[in-house]
Amino acid sequence: MIAALVAGLLAGYGIAMPVGAVAAYLVALTAQTSLRTGVFAALGVATADGVYALIAVCGGAALASVLRPVTLPLRRGSAVVLIALAIYGTVAAVRRHRGRRDGKGAGRTASGAVRAYLAMWGMTMMNPVTVVYFTALVLGRQAGAAPGRAGQVVFVVAVFVASASWQLLLAGGGAFLGRVLTGSRGQLITSIASSIVIGGLALHLLIAAS
């Protein structure tokens, strides 16, 4: 059980810690909105990691072979979504900078948080590398000793906890950044910079997939 816990934590941090477009978008989103929205978005990413860990435990080898032919289209689709988010983030930031209205959007916090959760969950689920990553780990562990049902549950939960803790740390950093850059111009610069980073990472993904 302890071995499954440690393996799950290491696997969760291993997939969550590399900084990519999703991490950059999570930080920027929290800085532009609120910690509540960032927390929901972070949990969306962690949920996707947990789902893929569960899929890998339940039969990742079979799914990995099914996903292999569509890996390239999924990567390209993910890159297109990220580029669209980068453009949308820049346009929204410019609009906010040009004209802010007091109290506007205050009543949309809950729906915005739910949308952030679903968007980040969907964005992370579009990455087929995640299921291949977890499948390799699970098969490697099974080659040594069959973990058993309880061990599999502990592994999946540990993956979710590790991923969630890291994503929440990123969201907290975004909230701190948002408090520091309270001025309209500072938030505009941050939004544009994050959109450039996200767009650059998405273009790199497209080039690698070509």
Count of separate structural domains: 1
What is the rounded distance between the termini?
42 Å
Structural class, by secondary structure, is mainly alpha
- Overall 3D form: globular
Series of H and E elements:
HHHHHHHH
Query: How helix-rich are the residues, as a percent range?
Result: over 70%
Residue ranges: pLDDT <50 for 5 or more in a row?
A: 105-109
> Which value, in Å, is the CA radius of gyration?
18 Å
The average pLDDT is 74
The biggest sheet, with number of strands, parallel, antiparallel or mixed sense and barrel status, is: none
Q: How much of the residues is beta strand, in percent?
A: under 5%
Query: How large is the count of helical segments?
Result: 8
Count every beta strand, where a strand is a DSSP E run of 2 or more residues: 0
